[in-house]
Sequence to fold (93 residues):
Amino acid sequence: MRAVEDPVLVERLARERIVLTVCPLSNIKLCVFPSLEQHNLRTLIDAGVRVTINSDDPAYFGGYVGENLLQTAEALTLDRRTLKQIARNSLEG
Fold:
């Protein structure tokens, strides 16, 4: 999720339609972000980056894909259109 620190990289990710797999609950557990509300997934989406929401070792990080989607959607107030796009990114990626 450090990609947002480099605007040129973010632009390239969006332009070349590179898909990023994001595991929000593990990002919290690993202290990449202090809370889901502070996760930068929305920033990437708004920049046109194709992101997917995934799980990373659910038994350890506390959530399968569905739980990652639910908690992230709630924390970042992702609407249905955005969630559909994230699902589409998963299929196309």
